[in-house]
Amino acid sequence: MATSIPRNWEAELSDFNDRMVRHHLTPTWAYYSELVAKEPPIAYRPYLWKSELLWKVVHKSGELVDLERGGERRSFEVVNPDLRHLHGTTHTIGAALQLVQPGELAPPHRHLANAIRFIVKGRGSYTAVQGERLYMEERDLILTPTWTWHEHGNETNEPIVWVDALDYPFNKLMQLSFFQPGGPTAAPEPRPVNYTTNRVGLARPTWLKYPEEIPNVTYRWTDTWKMMDALRKEEGSAFDGILFEYVNPFTAGSVLPTMACYAQLLRPGEHTKARRVTTSAVRYVLEGEGSTIVNGTRFDWAPGDFFMVPPWAWTEHVNGSAKDAVFFVMTDKPIIDTFKFWREEAYTQNGGHQAVTDLFVPLQWA
């Protein structure tokens, strides 16, 4: 009687798994932790860009980039070094600075990406959205929702610079993008100045229906700051201080289906507690100096700096000065809420504060 040879199950299974992979199949039993991770498998780091570097690029682009030579837009993205393949600030948001010189017109176009503009220098120029000119003052917020015609004009004697933020990294992940340049036959009928202001407010004309789901509202900083300042003595959020969300006046939801925008105030001496959430966030520093601690690394910020935090990273903010710290904030929370992916967790050790184990060193322009 022949002696049976015992099978080497582990070697046989390993070979079987390898052969499956070579045939473009995935054995769930071998890759389950990669398919369904216990916690978010974040693949990029937090990052910060200093104002000095950014404004050197703004000024140099003003010298070299001519919109009449086909530049389309004089803007540049702040790109996380781990997301170069998406040109993304986060995996869902691409933030940028854009410069429009005196007398310039950035030509009309439209694209699938939703976008926001937040003015950081200059006043009196306009963005025309769906044929309506929206005149902008410093720190005002305006929107260009998906597939809306828009163009920019600067009729003043001074340059204007704003923060751009678009959801194109998310679109890239979804394998979607459409773009159409404007022209004589590809543009909406002009609308009068204050078309939206006269139709969208606490009182509205009963016989008119606004033509878009997202109105061309200009969110005035003077109004936003007045409300924030009035509530500065409130307790606020233990994690965010005084945080105001800009909302769609029709729905009271986020301003865009893929991006939420906020104004944030850290009062003098305020040190928030740490938590982690499933959204990514981009902040532009408007006022104040301080630091944000992300997973134990301290990021020191000052006016004009950009910094971002990926999802599920322990985050707390410190304003150790005697002055206010103010941010403009963009997140992808509408996407997360749509898919019911929102989670948050408070840091419970050391009174809610992380130990600082590292200091982020920003790049200098070279």
List the helices and strands and how they pair.
Blueprint: H1 9-22, H2 28-35, E1 47-49, H3 51-64, E2 75-77, E3 94-100, E4 105-111, E5 115-121, E6 126-129, E7 132-135, E8 141-144, E9 150-153, E10 160-166, H4 168-173, E11 179-181, H5 221-230, E12 242-245, E13 260-266, E14 275-277, E15 281-287, E16 290-294, E17 297-301, E18 306-309, E19 315-318, E20 325-331, H6 333-338, E21 344-346, E22 358-359
Parallel strand pairs: 17-22
Antiparallel strand pairs: 1-18, 2-3, 3-10, 4-9, 4-11, 5-8, 5-10, 6-7, 6-9, 12-13, 13-20, 14-21, 15-18, 15-20, 16-17, 16-19
Could you walk me through the main structural features you see in this protein, from its secondary elements to its overall organization?
With 366 residues, the chain is of the alpha+beta class. The chain has a single domain (47-183, 217-359), classed as Jelly Rolls (Sandwich). It contains six helices and 22 strands. Strands 1-18-15-20-13-12 form a six-stranded antiparallel beta sheet. A five-stranded antiparallel beta sheet has the order 2-3-10-5-8. The protein is globular and about 95 Å long. The termini are far apart. The model has no long low-confidence stretch (mean pLDDT 95).
Task: State the gist of this model.
The protein is an alpha+beta fold and 366 residues long.
Strand content: 25-35%
| Unreliable stretches | none
DSSP strand tally: 22
CATH class: Mainly Beta
Radius of gyration: 24 Å
